[in-house]
Amino acid sequence: MTAPNIETIVSLAKRRGFVFPASEIYGGLGSSWDYGSLGVELANNIKQSWWRWLVYERDDIEGLDSSIIQNRLVWKYSGHETTFSDPLVDCRACKGRFRQDKLHDVKCPNEPSACAGSGKECDLTEAREFNLMFKTTVGAIASEDDESALAYLRPETAQGIFINFANVLNTSRRKLPFGIAQIGKAFRNEVTPGNFIFRTREFEQMEMEYFCQAEDAPRIHQEFIDGFQRWFQSIGISAANLKLYEQSKEELAHYSERTVDILYRFFPERADENAQFDELMGIANRTDFDLKTHSKKPEDAEGKRLNSDSTEDLSYFDEAKKERFYPYVIEPSAGVNRTILAVLMDAYTEKTNNKGETRVILKLKPELAPIKVAVLPLAKNKPEIVALAKQIKKDLQPAMRAVYDDTGGIGKLYARQDEIGTPFCVTIDHESLEDDAVTVRDRDTWEQERVKISELKGYLQKRLS
Amino acid sequence: MTAPNIETIVSLAKRRGFVFPASEIYGGLGSSWDYGSLGVELANNIKQSWWRWLVYERDDIEGLDSSIIQNRLVWKYSGHETTFSDPLVDCRACKGRFRQDKLHDVKCPNEPSACAGSGKECDLTEAREFNLMFKTTVGAIASEDDESALAYLRPETAQGIFINFANVLNTSRRKLPFGIAQIGKAFRNEVTPGNFIFRTREFEQMEMEYFCQAEDAPRIHQEFIDGFQRWFQSIGISAANLKLYEQSKEELAHYSERTVDILYRFFPERADENAQFDELMGIANRTDFDLKTHSKKPEDAEGKRLNSDSTEDLSYFDEAKKERFYPYVIEPSAGVNRTILAVLMDAYTEKTNNKGETRVILKLKPELAPIKVAVLPLAKNKPEIVALAKQIKKDLQPAMRAVYDDTGGIGKLYARQDEIGTPFCVTIDHESLEDDAVTVRDRDTWEQERVKISELKGYLQKRLS
Fold first, then answer.
1. N or C: which end of chain B has fewer CB within 10 A?
2. What are the Cα distances from residue B383, in Å, to A72, A319, B397, B439, B456?
């Protein structure tokens, strides 16, 4: 089973320390979220799984970590300064501000039952384009209006990869095809963020730009579409909650030849099945737009898109073909936060215990679980038991994330570990002092097994892998 | 030995793909840097070592990952809005802008040999305070002057911890003493960034706030001062290049009772030994300032510092003592980027080969090395050798970061792996196809040993640990 809706996850996440509202003690900051001690581990495990799968296990992808604030010219030539915007309308009656293309999703404040723009009193202005990039100024400048110091917070990590193409190519001595992967924060000044961590102004991306010959691009594109569906399933997302969406010609970004989105069933409570799904990841064939646009004075077919600011030509010389050209780019781009949400929703399970009470179990894949094993003393007031439990935690730690917990009775501790997705609990009791064995409890089956302390690490490693 | 100066590291870092100038193809962006495929691995290894040491191996520290953009009120009550500034002066003659307290470090553009402010033509204005926080605006607002939408990029991760104190306390059920650790980006609009990645406007912090009773604070403070010196040594920084600096009463931040900096010898080329050292990390006893200032209407001794904006009281109730109070905070705060620089400088070694040529070896601790083992085919044109090498890389990968490399002759490949700090090279030759063995070469001694392929993983794991 999966969570019935996002609200169930919001509540669990706050209660157990996965995600908190940001700036909560000051009334928050419109759909901003902080990650608690379990959330940061889950996020790191997802990021590491993605990185391992692409950068470590394959032999054709390099990593990168570029700056959030880059020279403004990056965003001029990427097209973001002119085209990265949403159409905004103001309402003269309620003073509200809305995205024109999302009016039906927003309620009119004056008419609670009506969508914005459709109420009796609604009096909308013409739409104007609102750029989604956060602006700031760099350096000590004379006035805030000084355009020379204007900079943006990156709205995507991708451009940091394109502008470093030559640096990576030269230092890695790669030949086509190869990719550059990056994980990092991005910022979009969304007019209507919401749905918990689904759409936030500050978020984290996992992006990879794969450079190849034009003729290989369609095949490689399809391979990543197939591959990432497998990857999402490998981290515990069920195939039944994933769906592909082929963008229509009208929806495609100007640089894209083909884009396929991987959707997840984020809204299972909606009656219309199509409306249950929303974007988890996009995989685009960006053609040769990116390297061309950032190259010194390249001309496209119509002789346009001159770039006199760039100091580099980012074309590639193919030694076998004796040919120089701009590589095509396949871009699989996923959100860390949406992946966290999908993983939590898919792992959410309710189970009835023998007293007829409903318990929550988070059936996370062991690889993603924030804690792999919790070591629990059955009697907190017995120093030998506590000491043994702490020693066992210490011995397990180098091999797997282990915690020691004595903050409640054993039933409560089990319930807590089930809710946060810990695959195994190890209980140290009075007998442990005699028989050098402990009880290992399985999160999903609640079955218990007695295991010798000397064999515990190997036993757990085997069951966790 | 260590690097003779930072410039040596800048050159190595660019040449081998650790660090590149950010936005380089657009002329850069004043002391901004991007991390290449080796730099991102080194940074991740440093961060993971810090995190493992604090969060995993101890039993008293929780992790956190809070937002970069928080409610503006966080920075009002932390004091950053009013006090986080540098004194700036303008020169009417050269139109330059300088930090008043660093004038002697900057050359006057009109008088190349003179310090700014000391030249004949220098005509400085009175100093004015320049706030170092980057500003931005959140949401779609009517005008850029709309104060209600003003927000800052965090200049430190610490405040994200303080404002989440109650959330973490409640979900983790901790009792004093305990800590909250966070790693993340921070931004300071420095007037004079520089010295490579030593001082940049965008940087990454590793901070931990340790909450305790007032009477335990001095002892715990000293324990972290001692502990972090050991940690820096554990990641390969030699004790001879570390030094403690006790801040004087005049230098202490207003909230601090005692602050000790750990300095590193970043500038070994300077004649004055004191000038060779600069800050790597600060460890402060912040008293009870932070939780008090963010608490709803707390009064200090003078009845000041009312906070009517906060919705929470962040005091702590001690059940044993039946007492409510604001915990003291010990803060060890280190920069990821400065740690990278110190690690690279300390690992830098030159060695003369038997032809009398000088070679660079980066003697990184295996734990920090971006690549643990490079698998190299001796003959690239022999398909069986290439296939065997790729298979060996694949078999090693789950246990250790391994790469396959065939982009040069074996001498060049060894030299490259030495320069990027790879502890071991594994060479597959013609004989390997017969005797099922490979040659393992040690980075530091250049000694070679023949090892059975079936024993290779265990052999390397043992030598890497």
1. C
2. 48, 21, 21, 19, 21
> Largest alpha-carbon pair distance within chain A?
84
Give the distance between the most distant pair of CA atoms in chain B.
84
The minimum CA-CA distance between A208 and chain B, rounded to whole Å, is 13
CA distance B119 to B103: 11
Cβ contact A66–B22 (<8 Å): yes
> What span, in angstroms and rounded, lies between the C-alpha atoms of B198 and B183?
18
**C-alpha to C-alpha distance for B177 and B61, rounded to whole angstroms:** 9
Which stretches does DSSP call E strand in B193-342? Answer: 202-212, 242-246, 258-264, 278-285, 316-318, 323-325, 328-335
Beta bridge partners of A205: A184, A335
Q: In this structure, how many other beta carbons lie within 10 angstroms of the beta carbon of residue B5?
A: 14
pLDDT recorded at residue A144: 59
Q: Residue A226 corresponds to which amino acid?
A: D
Nearest Cα residue to B131 out of B116, B153, B146: B153
Pairwise CA distance, residues A383 & A380, whole Å: 7
Residues with Cβ within 8 Å of residue A227, at least 6 apart in sequence: none
Those residues whose C-beta lies under 8 Å from the C-beta of residue A193, and which sit 6 or more positions away, are A30, A31, A199, A200, A201
Looking up tokens 């300095």 gives B263
Contact B425, B368 (CB under 8 A): no
Phi, then psi, of A405 in degrees rounded to 5: -140, 125
Q: What is the pLDDT of residue B304?
A: 67
Complex ipTM, two decimals?
A: 0.95
Q: Is A26 on the interface with B (CB under 8 A)?
A: yes
Cα B294 → chain centroid: 27
Determine the Cα–Cα distance for residues B306 and A46; give it in Å rounded to an integer.
Answer: 42
pLDDT at A162 (0 to 100): 98
The answer to whether the peptide bond before residue A377 is cis (omega within 30 degrees of 0) is: no
The pLDDT assigned to A304 comes to 67
Q: Give the residue from chain A lying closest to B49, CA to CA.
A: A398
What does the block give as tokens for B457? 């993983």
- The tokens for A114 are 């009506």
For chain B, list residues with pLDDT below 70: 141-146, 298-301, 303-305
Q: What length does chain A have?
A: 465
CA distance A329 to A318: 16
pLDDT of residue A300: 62
Interface residue B368 vs chain A (CB under 8 A): no
CA-CA distance, B288 to B327, in Å (whole number)?
6
- What 3 state SS string does A108-133 have? ECCEEEEECCCCCCCCECCCEEEECC
What residue spans of A247-403 are helical by DSSP H?
273-276, 289-293, 336-347, 383-396
Per-residue confidence (pLDDT) for residue A322, from 0 to 100: 96
**What residues of chain A score a pLDDT lower than 70?**
141-146, 298-301, 303-305
Res B142: pLDDT: 56
Q: Tell if the CB–CB gap between B23 and A163 is shorter than 8 Å.
A: yes
Rounded to whole angstroms, how far apart are CA atoms A464 and B87?
56
Q: Which one, of B345, B335, B55, lies nearest residue B204 by Cα?
A: B335
Compute the distance between CA of residue B199 and CA of residue B366 in angstroms, rounded to an integer: 27
CA gyration radius for chain B? 26
Nearest to A32 among B59, B69, B130 (CB): B69
Measured CA to CA, the distance from residue A165 to residue A179 in angstroms comes to 10
Judge whether B67 is closer than 8 Å to chain A, CB to CB.
yes
Question: Which is nearest to B2 in space by CA: B349, B235, B276?
Answer: B349
